[in-house]
Amino acid sequence: MSDISFFDVLIYAVSLLIGGATGVVQFYLLYKFVTSVTGGKTGTKTIIFAITQFIFPFVILVICAFLLPASIMWVGIGVAVSLVTCAIIRFVKVSKQKELSKKKKKK
Question: What's the DSSP call for residue 42?
Fold first, then answer.
């Protein structure tokens, strides 16, 4: 028999969801920051994206460490999985757009 209760599983699932949402927001902030910098825009908005991109996940992890200390690992897993997933989705989307633009130029 397992020592894990339904309540524990529920806490782990909520922790994964919190981590997943944090990773998606972090990816968005990172994407906005990188596109601003590579686009030559280094204004106040870019600095805000840079600072927020580093502070946001730290704040979420600290809050979860105090509220859900036993499941902080699951929050981290959720963040990592959602960051990698968002990066793969973005890569596939950009690759398909480039492929379509090459086909249009050939016609």
Answer: -
Give the pLDDT band (50/70/90) at residue 107: low
Instruction: Please work out, in degrees rounded to the nearest 5, the angle formed at the alpha carbon of residue 93 by the alpha carbons of 31 and 41.
Output: 30
Question: Could you tell me the pTM of the whole model?
Answer: 0.83
CA pair distance 73, 75, nearest whole angstrom: 5
Tell me how long the chain is. 107
Percent pLDDT > 70 in the chain is 97
Which one-letter amino acid corresponds to residue 68? L
Q: Report the 10 Å Cβ neighbour count for 36.
A: 18
Within 1-107, residue ranges assigned H as helices are 6-38, 44-67, 72-106
